[in-house]
Structure formats: structure tokens, C-alpha cells
Design brief:
single chain; about 140 residues; 7 helices; mainly alpha; about 70% helix; globular
């Protein structure tokens, strides 16, 4: 058992884990962004207006769901990008799920807000972890050591 763990540790490094974490959350978020790019953001606008906020704030969804994921994949301005993504998800939870915060899904037993909460927590984790070795931040010496 220890032998296997030692062998895995040689290839399964924290640097590769950071790459997997930031690229997987970004790629998954891109699907949401592409949908909004193709079909518009009328639902987001309605939620923003319903909350009494100015409509132009709805356009921030393009930043959070399209531009930021590309920056995360590249590992460019990673901590800031992950903070923007976590903020986007915080706003999404506030606008779309405040009435369902503690409700459980009857099918799965999990929280109804599980998916947006997962996006928020993973992106917040990236804020703390940083980009890692396999990133433009590191190549451009933008990452803190």
C-alpha cells in the first residue's frame, strides 16, 4: 500500500492537481457561458431587475462565464480571475437561489444550490492555491511564491 502511494506521489503532484482543478472548473463554466452567448441573457436580466439592480450588471455574466474561464485555463491572473468567478457565483446564488439556500433536492438528498455552491467553493480554493507551475502566471513571473 505504501509502495503504491509513493509511486503515485511521483506523478500525482500538487502542481498537476492545481492545473486539473483550475482547468476543469473553467471548462465546465464555459458551457454555461456558451449557452448565454448563443441564447442571450434575458433570464439573468430578469433576475437582476427583480433584485432592484441596474440591468447593465447582467452583462457581467459574460465576463464571469466566458472571459474568466479562458484566463483560468491559461493560468493568467489566476487568483484575481478565480476571485471574479467566485464573486460571479456568489451573485448567482444571491439572485437565483436565496429562497432555496437550505432546501434539499428530493432526488439526490443534496442541497438544491449544490452546483453553484460547488463552483463558488472551488473557485475560492483556487484563489488560495494560485495557478501553480503549469501556468502563464508562472511563466511571466506574475505568481507569488
Amino acid at each position: 500500500m505504501f509502495y503504491v502511494e509513493k509511486k503515485l506521489a511521483k506523478y500525482m503532484t500538487d502542481e498537476r492537481g492545481k492545473l486539473l482543478l483550475r482547468s476543469s472548473i473553467a471548462i465546465l463554466m464555459l458551457f454555461h457561458g456558451f449557452k448565454k452567448l448563443n441564447y442571450g441573457i434575458s433570464e439573468v436580466k430578469a433576475l437582476v431587475l427583480q433584485a432592484g439592480l441596474p440591468e447593465f450588471l447582467a452583462y457581467g455574466v459574460y465576463m464571469g462565464e466566458l472571459i474568466i474561464p479562458f484566463l483560468l485555463i491559461a493560468g493568467l491572473f489566476t487568483r484575481f480571475s478565480a476571485f471574479i468567478l467566485s464573486s460571479t457565483m456568489g451573485v448567482a446564488i444571491y439572485l437565483g437561489f436565496t429562497d432555496k439556500l437550505l432546501m434539499l433536492d428530493a432526488k439526490t438528498g443534496g442541497l438544491l444550490i449544490e452546483l453553484p455552491l460547488l463552483y463558488l467553493l472551488v473557485s475560492l480554493s483556487i484563489v488560495f492555491l494560485g495557478a501553480g507551475k503549469y501556468s502563464l502566471d508562472r511563466q511571466l513571473h506574475l505568481a507569488y511564491r
